[in-house]
Specification:
The protein is an alpha+beta fold. The protein is 64% helix and 10% strand. It has two domains: 4-101, no CATH class; 105-176, bsu07140 like domains (CRO Repressor, 2-Layer Sandwich). It has helices at residues 4-7, 13-35, 37-41, 45-63, 69-92, 94-101, 115-121, 125-134, 163-176; strands spanning 105-109, 112-113, 143-148, 154-158.
């Protein structure tokens, strides 16, 4: 039986696939970190198209001329192991967690947009209004704070709701789980 469809022509290229895949993964991680959490957390159609095209563009860089099933599986395994390793490192290093995971950023304070932070994160007034509506508010002035979280979501704290009380409530809810 001919197994070349699975293994390719030779096994010596396996190391090259692993090294190429690791290099592409780390380079893309750096590139994406330079563009910020917003692009990763709240994808719009152009962002999704970009991500799909990037994945297609780097495929050949990862596996090179090797087109076997094994090379593809080896590249996938390498990506999964690298991702798992980075996540484990983030748990051990708060500094690395901040670099990779980002930090929350205040976009609205006491009902006033913080223009510099909006520009920094490419967040529009409409994005803020959408988040407000999702939280039952109609106007920016009704918000005590809107925070861009590290995962790209927008958290809203309504005016008149003490921040400390809401944090205590969250802590109590977590203890019950």
């Amino acid at each position: 039986m001919d197994w070349t469809w699975l293994t390719g022509e030779s096994w010596q290229s396996a190391g090259q696939v692993v090294l190429r895949t690791a290099g592409v993964y780390l380079a893309l991680l750096v590139f994406l970190l330079l563009f910020g959490a917003r692009e990763l957390g709240q994808m719009r159609p152009p962002d999704l198209v970009l991500l799909l095209l990037i994945s297609n563009a780097v495929q050949n860089a990862m596996v090179g001329p090797e087109t076997s099933v094994l090379a593809g599986l080896l590249a996938a395994l390498t990506l999964l192991l690298l991702n798992h390793g980075i996540n484990r490192l983030r748990l051990r290093s708060p500094r690395l967690a901040r670099v990779i995971g980002g930090q929350p950023l205040l976009l609205v304070h006491d009902g006033v947009l913080i223009a510099e932070h909006l520009r920094q994160t490419a967040t529009t007034r409409d994005d803020i209004l959408i988040a407000l509506r999702e939280h039952g508010l109609e106007r920016i002035e009704e918000a005590q704070a809107v925070v861009l979280e590290p995962d790209g979501t927008l958290s809203v704290i309504q005016r008149g709701v003490p921040v400390l009380r809401s944090h205590r409530r969250l802590r109590r809810a977590r203890r019950r789980d």
